[in-house]
């Protein structure tokens, strides 16, 4: 995305209401970082580049207009898919990858909370989708986002054993066309933004583009900044 990009914003404005009407809502999560035994957790990326990262979760709602919206916005996104939704329509997500520059990552088997489960069960829930995605998408995922952003030491150990390089949280969230921030009042370089495949997809992408433009940031692919 080049800044400013009024044309892209105008296109998204025209498209987002084909997906759903606008409404409001927010939730805020604490930002920070966490490392230790197991895969490291990242809430935001430390970088001097004027970049921000869009991540999209679950995959429950799939609408052909979503591809049009992402392509028009020129926003590369990391898609954290649950295995059950990915298996429902892998071709839909392959098109987002191939035509909109998205990267496919894992959100686990389903959206069950991992905390309180043993190591073997958490490994099963993280490792099995990795094998499924290699078959469906030709590549194992590098990143994992735990359902609800909920994790413990056992989750990080399980993720490491499954070959996950980073467990990804977030520092800002878009919900129903509005963005909320953790410990800030605007986007900052390195912020990781959470949104979902939902009925307000178009409005949420439009909000991301407008907030990024307002902060003088360009969307970048998260995977390119994690090593």
TrEMBL record:
SUPFAM superfamilies: Glycoside hydrolase/deacetylase (SSF88713). Keywords: Hydrolase, Signal. The keyword Signal applies. Residues 50-227 form the NodB homology domain. Residues 1-20 form the signal peptide. One of its GO terms (biological process) is carbohydrate metabolic process. PROSITE patterns: NODB (PS51677), PROKAR_LIPOPROTEIN (PS51257). This is Peptidoglycan-N-acetylmuramic acid deacetylase PdaA. Its EC number is 3.5.1.-. It is an enzyme of class 3 (hydrolase). It comes from the Bacteria. It holds the Pfam family Polysacc_deac_1. CDD domains: CE4_NodB_like_6s_7s. GO terms for molecular function: hydrolase activity, acting on carbon-nitrogen (but not peptide) bonds. It comes from Streptomonospora litoralis.
């Amino acid at each position: 995305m080049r800044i400013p990009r009024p044309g892209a914003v105008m296109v998204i404005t025209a498209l987002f209401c084909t997906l759903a009407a606008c409404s409001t809502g927010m939730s805020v999560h604490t930002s920070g970082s966490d490392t230790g035994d197991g895969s490291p957790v990242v809430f935001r990326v430390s970088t001097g580049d004027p970049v921000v990262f869009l991540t999209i979760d679950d995959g429950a709602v799939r609408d052909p207009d979503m591809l049009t919206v992402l392509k028009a916005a020129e926003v590369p996104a990391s898609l954290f898919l649950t295995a059950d939704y990915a298996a429902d329509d892998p071709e839909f997500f392959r098109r987002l990858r191939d035509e909109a520059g998205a990267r496919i990552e894992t959100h686990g088997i389903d959206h069950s909370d991992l905390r309180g489960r043993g190591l073997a069960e958490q490994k099963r829930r993280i490792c099995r989708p990795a094998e499924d995605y290699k078959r469906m998408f030709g590549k194992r995922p590098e990143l994992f986002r735990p359902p609800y952003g909920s994790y413990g030491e056992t989750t990080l150990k399980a993720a490491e054993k499954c070959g996950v390089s980073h467990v990804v949280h977030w520092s800002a969230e878009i919900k129903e066309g509005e963005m909320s921030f953790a410990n800030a009042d605007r986007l900052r370089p390195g912020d990781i933004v959470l949104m979902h495949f939902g009925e307000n997809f178009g409005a949420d992408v439009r909000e991301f583009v407008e907030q990024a433009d307002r902060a003088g940031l360009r969307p970048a692919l998260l995977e390119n900044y994690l090593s």
